[in-house]
Amino acid sequence: MKTLIFRAHELCDLEQDKQEELQFLKNTFISNDFPPQVVDKVFHTYKPGQKKNQDEDAKPTETICVPYVPGFSERFRKVMRKNGIRVVFNKGRTLGSLLVRTKASTCAHKLKNQKTTFI
Q1: For residue 68, what are the domain limits?
Q2: DSSP for 96-119, written as a single string
Q3: pLDDT, tens digit, 9 for 90 and up, residues 47-73
Q4: Count of the separate structural domains present in the chain
Q5: 26 and 61 fall within a common domain
Q6: Is 94 helix (H, G, I), strand (E, B) or coil?
Q7: Which of 63, 78, 104, 115 could hold 86 in an S-S bridge, CB 3.0 to 4.6 Å?
Q8: Half-sphere CA count of 90, side-chain side, radius 13 A
Q9: Residue 66 lies in a domain
Q10: Is 61 within a domain?
């Protein structure tokens, strides 16, 4: 609900258009089985232009890159963000990255004197 209310405040230039849009949103929420008390409460408590939490918008000062570990990494990122540190995950070593070589072999000079057939 708050996203649509925010959108109405941001996009409507004239106050009359804004009020019409907000009334339309109220009617739409109520007609889609939202409880009228909840709709009224959300509309009355919404303050346009006010951010939810100022601490979340603070830019991190440091960045660290760590391997991703399912289940742990999400919690670790959240704790570090609260301390002003950005966490970036890298893929780490996999069996495929250890076995597959994407660069061509540099032993082409060895094949000059040999007859080689590729099938």
Answers
A1: 55-93
A2: HHHH---SPPS-GGGGTTS-----
A3: 877 655 555 556 667 888 888 888 888
A4: 2
A5: no
A6: coil
A7: 63
A8: 8
A9: yes
A10: yes
Which candidate, 112, 70, 77, 114, places its Cα nearest to that of 91?
Answer: 70
- For all residues of the chain together, what is the average pLDDT? 80
Q: Please determine, for residue 113, whether its predicted confidence score (pLDDT) is greater than 90.
A: no
Q: Is the dihedral of CA 50, 51, 55, 58 positive or negative?
A: negative
How big, in percent rounded to 5, are the helix, strand and coil portions of the chain?
Answer: 50, 10, 40
More confident residue, 18 or 118: 18
Tokens of 18: 């804004």
In a domain, 28, yes or no: yes
CA distance 50 to 88: 29
Q: Within this chain, do residues 59 and 84 fall inside the same structural domain, yes or no?
A: yes
More confident residue, 113 or 49: 49
CA distances from 71 to 7, 15, 33, 76, 85 (A): 35, 48, 36, 9, 19
| pTM passes above 0.85 | no
| Cβ pair 41, 63 in contact under 8 A | no
Q: How far apart are CA 80 and CA 64, in angstroms?
A: 10
The residue to which tokens 């990255």 are assigned: 97
